[in-house]
Design goal:
The structure is a homodimer. The first copy, chain A, is of the alpha+beta class and about 140 residues long. Chain A contains five helices and six strands. Strand 6 of chain A pairs antiparallel with strand 6 of chain B. Chain A binds a DNA duplex (30 and 30 nucleotides) through helix 2 and helix 4.
DNA sequence: CCAATATTCTTGACTCATTCCAGAAAGCGG
DNA sequence: CCGCTTTCTGGAATGAGTCAAGAATATTGG
């Protein structure tokens, strides 16, 4: 759990200006992993009630570009963000409630990166999405 | 390359009514793999100029539900459809031009399905998206 | 082969996430 | 402390996709 000062350093390290909205967004993403944009806006507004929607969108994009947060976008859902970056981990998505959990790379370091036939593509990343049901929904057995 | 009669049988086999729009959509998806919805609408209209956008959306959804086509939705792009179903293959997406190619499963039958730690989820599918640059864009070296 | 019925298609309005724009308000370097 | 540049605010706009009501059209029993 990083503190405000850490966030400022992270921003400076990425050559980004340190602004209240940016620090707040960083904190919100860290406190709510896999949250969608609206949730992040809500979280940010608990400490900075005046931030605009666009500020959050802009900040999230800027942070994504420099690699301080990662954007994930499972089909059928709005974009979500997480602060765990640097390790290429993956996600399990519950088909029923949408809950997302982290999954470390399946077979060692960067296994799935080796496609059997890349058709001449130069591949630099493999993104895996697992689909299933979370413990709660498995037990409930509902749709 | 299946013919109209085959499409009719596929639809009947899935307990779907055989309608002109459905046959045309099935043909369009097969003729244009990885096409987005607008392209499919365009392709369908070359033989059935009057089909409505919603008809195509409805048909694509119906076909997806019964498993005659597969919907893929790489982050940052609109939904795309393909007719290759049944084998759980994956996709390479070019970061620069968006071109999509098929990739067979990396390590044998259904390798990536085995997450290292599923957090109690019951996983039934693993979807892999490879990111890179297609041969043309690699050569061009542009952004 | 034809009518009855349930599904499917057309038209048009609408939602939702996200982006674009112009002007006001900060950060940062000197 | 000052000016320049980037960032934030507020509002309008875009684009994919969905919803709803009525018209059209497949299938099924006669």
């Amino acid at each position: 759990m990083a503190a405000t000062l850490d966030f400022q350093q992270m921003l400076r390290g990425a050559a980004l200006r340190v602004t209240r909205p940016r620090v707040a967004v960083l904190g919100a993403v860290q406190a709510h992993p896999h949250a969608d944009t609206d949730s992040i806006i809500g979280a940010v507004r608990t400490e900075l009630p005046e931030v605009s929607r666009q500020a959050v969108y802009d900040v999230l994009r800027a942070l994504t570009v420099v690699g301080l947060v990662r954007r994930i976008e499972p089909p059928g859902t709005a974009a979500r963000y997480e602060s765990r970056v640097g390790d290429n981990h993956h996600h399990v998505v519950c088909r029923s409630c949408g809950l997302i959990a982290d999954v470390d790379c399946a077979v060692g370091a960067a296994p799935c990166l080796a496609a059997s036939d890349g058709h001449g593509y130069s591949i630099d990343e493999a993104e895996v999405t697992y689909w299933g049901r979370c413990p709660d929904c498995s037990t409930a057995g509902s749709s």
